[in-house]
């Protein structure tokens, strides 16, 4: 009996947050890798879930699986093409197997801030990118913001030379590999759920991420400090299977698209605030945050920007021009 009770309790606690769907409702699984609260993606996914489940009750039922509990980012897109999951929002760095065009988002010091990223994503070029993986079975529905990336390591990072020889975890993106090689560091591709352990056991020395990820996954606890470098962007694409999406009854698809668009607008306008709060929370929790003078930051620009050259052909001059124009 005791054994049974324990099993029941474990089952309950690991599934407690997953929505219960009624018979006859179409189940829409949404898998992601971050926290649910105090995080731009987690909050947006939860809002989408609650709106779908109240406004489409009886027709559709969304189940959000956060924190890599269902799939890791390197598995989720395959699972989507197999019909095992219907929605995900991987970072834009995770689409490398599907398109080289998304490399634009990983170029260091391209976008000045999230507003510039927003302008680019909402331009004709950004819209086109959402449809660029259709041949491979994937359809981009919306861009979701997280924020600018910061650098952290087990020693202070003030000058680019400080990164020399250090092992940095990167997302599965060749641009990010090249960015750290440019600094004389050793980049290692690693999944998000392994980063904290990797830093703690010193398999890696450092990483780059947004404030909400550095706070949400407590990376600051196992690092010397975080340098407010704002050197790149971490943003997401809400993605689905083109076949699944276009196979939906038109009314269901329309209602889902409308809710998603409203959630996107509401939450994207709050992402900067969420990251600002995360930075504050890192400081309050005893984390060290280092800021750079304009001259110090410029040295990182000079060190990292040559990476652009390697990827210009993959990305295309037109797209690069459109992205640069979004800074004004
Ligand atoms: C990462 O792998 O560092 C991020 O893409 C995780 C996320 O989804 O924010």
UniProtKB/TrEMBL annotation:
This is TRAP transporter substrate-binding protein. Coiled coil: none annotated. Residues 1-19 form the signal peptide. GO terms for biological process: C4-dicarboxylate transport; transmembrane transport. Belongs to the bacterial solute-binding protein 7 family. Keywords: Signal, Transport. It holds the Pfam family DctP. It comes from the Bacteria. The keyword Electron transport does not apply. GO terms for cellular component: outer membrane-bounded periplasmic space.
């Amino acid at each position: 009996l005791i054994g049974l009770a324990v099993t029941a309790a474990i089952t309950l606690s690991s599934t407690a947050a997953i929505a219960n769907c009624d018979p006859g409702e179409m189940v829409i699984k949404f898998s992601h890798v971050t926290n649910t609260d105090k995080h731009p993606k987690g909050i947006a996914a939860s809002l989408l879930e609650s709106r779908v489940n109240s406004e489409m009750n009886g027709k559709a039922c969304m189940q959000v699986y956060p924190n890599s509990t269902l799939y890791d980012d390197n598995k989720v897109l395959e699972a989507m093409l197999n019909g095992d999951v219907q929605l995900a929002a991987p970072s834009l760095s995770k689409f490398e197997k599907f398109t080289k065009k998304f490399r634009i988002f990983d170029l260091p010091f391209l976008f000045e801030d999230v507003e510039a990223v927003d302008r680019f994503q909402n331009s004709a070029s950004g819209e086109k990118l959402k449809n660029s993986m259709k041949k491979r079975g994937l359809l981009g529905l919306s861009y979701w913001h997280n924020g600018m990336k910061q650098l952290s390591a087990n020693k202070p990072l003030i000058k680019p030379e400080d990164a020399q020889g250090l092992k940095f975890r990167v997302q599965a993106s060749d641009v990010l590999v090249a960015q750290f090689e440019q600094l004389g560091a050793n980049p290692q591709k690693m999944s998000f759920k392994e980063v904290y352990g990797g830093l703690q056991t010193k398999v890696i020395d450092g990483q780059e991420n947004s404030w909400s990820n550095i706070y949400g996954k407590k990376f600051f606890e196992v690092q010397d400090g975080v340098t407010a470098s704002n050197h790149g962007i971490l943003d997401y694409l809400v993605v689905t299977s083109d076949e699944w999406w276009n196979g939906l009854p038109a009314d269901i698809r329309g209602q889902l698209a409308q809710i998603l668009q409203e959630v996107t607008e509401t939450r994207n306008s709050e992402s900067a605030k969420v990251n600002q709060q995360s930075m504050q929370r890192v400081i309050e929790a005893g984390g060290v945050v280092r800021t750079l003078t304009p001259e110090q930051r410029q040295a990182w620009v000079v060190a990292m920007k040559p990476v652009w050259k390697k990827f210009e052909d993959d990305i295309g001059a037109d797209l690069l021009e459109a992205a640069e124009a979004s800074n004004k």
